Amino acid sequence: MTSAEHDRLMRANQANWDARTPVHLASRFYGLDQDLGPERWFAPFEWEDLGELTGRDVLHLQCHLGTETIAFARRGARAVGLDFSEASVAAAQDIAAKSGADVTYVRANVYDAVAALDGRRFDVVYTGKGALCYLPDLDRWAKTIRQLLRPGGRVYVVEFHPLLNSLGPKPAPGEGPELLLRHDYLGGAGPVHRDGTHTYTDGPAVEGATDSYEWMHGMGEVVNALTGAGLAVRRLREGDELPWPRWPQMVRTESGWWRLPEPRIPLLYGLLATR
Known about the structure:
Elements (H helix, E strand, L loop, with lengths): L2 H23 L18 H7 L6 E5 L5 H8 L3 E6 L2 H14 L3 E5 L5 H4 L5 E7 L9 H11 E12 L1 H5 L25 E4 L15 E4 L4 H10 L3 E8 L1 E2 L8 E2 L5 E2 L8 E7 L1
Helix pairs in contact: 1-4, 6-8
Keywords: Methyltransferase, Transferase
InterPro entries: Methyltransf_12, SAM-dependent_MTases_sf
GO molecular function, one term: methyltransferase activity
């Protein structure tokens, strides 16, 4: 697939996320009308891996509503969020203002981040939880991140495990509750087209642009993209909890997140690399 075709599909995704934003703002999933702390979106191991953030320049790529970006600011970071959706950036700015958080938001495609940020360098680049599947070219993504990092800077990718993405979210008619492999684990088969009137949240139907495109990326592809860009992988974690119950049989844990009672399988991973 050519870069021009990638750009066309990413513009469709951009329109789709513009259309999703009002649905997400009104959803119980995000709970923006409740007094819920933004740190609820983080696994405990993330803060251990990220370390002290006070006085650090932190960039959150594909930030959507900026809920996690606010958490970085509250931990003392000079936080910047970047997203390609104009509606998402406008909503994130409003949410940050209402919460009193000092966050800067920039609207740009990830691949254009270096120019959009005027060559600014960061101590930490954070990304994940449903972000990488909207990027067709991870080699280009990793090279962009390297340019965004200061020497010694860290990138932290916290993503839904490709095994999770391979499992069907719900049984087909006539099937039992068993989890079945329904989608590719590995990338390379091209984009998956979705035409969905509802997103991963509750709320009304999406109006307007309902087409979106996702690319599968196995763990090896992510690691090789980062190392190929000259970054050194320092830590890889696999976790068995999610911040929401994807399947009815999941149980809530002491952390407030959700896990399967059995089998224990990776649902999330955290990958730390340095320049």
